[in-house]
Every structure is written in structure tokens, then in C-alpha cells.
Amino acid sequence: MGQPGKKLPAVALKKDLAAEVLALTGSRTAAAKAAKVHPQQISRWLADDDYRAKVQKLIEAGMEPARVEWNALVIRALKRVGELVDSKDLVIAERAARTVLDRHKEFAPHQHQHDASGLTKEQLIERMEKVLAKLKEPL
Questions:
Q1: Residue 81: how many CB atoms within 10 A of its CB?
Q2: Which residues contact 37 (CB under 8 A, 6 or more apart)?
Q3: Domain match, 130 and 101 both
Q4: With 80 as the cut, is the pLDDT of residue 104 above it?
Q5: Does residue 80 sit within a domain?
Q6: Domain extent at residue 23
Q7: Confidence (pTM)
Q8: Is residue 63 domain-shared with residue 94, that is, in the same domain?
């Protein structure tokens, strides 16, 4: 919001506040209310490419922590599935493998073919090994 040590004109402060509220809520009405301007003013400001880019940059900056957290959760989930597939309890290992196979496009059978439960043990083991190899690849 502006440069430190410099006082911004009231309009610039309102525009900055509106940009932050827009980025946070996506609501022009909420942005107008926060900046104490008419909602049409928000639309006029958004017609300016620089202002629109500023709002977009704020949106992306706000999303970055969520992306990082999401990626961390995906990595944890993949590791956990790998652990389940490697379980010494064969029932857990088989269920985990079938779940992975049923959900993975490359290895899941097509609808017109038999489903994963119709695979022989050898076919299941072969597919499990392929899935495990994929899970161990760096993301």
C-alpha cells in the first residue's frame, strides 16, 4: 500500500484499500463499502489495466500460502498411500493398491473392461509396482 514514509492522497488510499478488499473477497460491493466509494467507481478503477494488474497481483500473493500448503498436503498424502501399499497387512496393502489403481487414469481399467477386482494377483502386483515407481518419482 504505497511507499513507506510517503503520504498518499485520499483517492490513492481508497484505491489501495479497495484493491485489497477485492483481492480478498472478490466483491466489488465490499470493496466499495470499505473504500467508501460508489460500486461504479470500483468498476471504473478496474477498467484501468494497471489497477486490474495490481488487484491480480494481490490475489496471487494471497493464494501463494494456500498453494504451498496444498502441495505439502498432496506430498503427505502420496507418501501415506505409498506406506499403505507397502503395509505388512496384506488386506491394507491390497485395498490401498486397488484404490490407487481405480483412481489413476493410466492404470485404471476402462469401464467396458473388467474392474480392478477382476485382476489376477500377478497383474495386480505388476500394476502396484508401476504405481509405486510413480509415487517415488520427484514431484
A1: 18
A2: 14, 18
A3: yes
A4: no
A5: no
A6: 10-67
A7: 0.46
A8: no
